[in-house]
Please model this.
Amino acid sequence: QVQLVESGGGSVQAGGSLTLSCAASGYIESIHCMAWFRQAPGKEREKVASLDGDGTATYADSVKGRFTISRDKAEILDLQMDTLRPEDTAMYYCAAGRSWCHFGMQYWGKGTLVTVSS
Model:
């Protein structure tokens, strides 16, 4: 089993920056993919960024060039968010999978809230 705990959410003005962190514990050796998802009120959950075990990072079109996903330590996944927009307001979730990212996620954190004001 793997446990994921997010931190770093908060309120920021448009144009500002935030860094989210996800701390993984448990059988982290089983993790191949890690990702960030978000869900805004009244909207479906969407994948923001993912990082496969071979180091390949992918981003949603809406965040390309503004967000950066990184995993410098096996147990920590970060999401650097720059030039934030009000439409980035959402609950952000960390997720992990035992295989390649396109096979889906088995583990989820409880989320951290990001609010961007105009």
Summary: The CA atoms of residues 2 and 40 lie 25 Å apart.
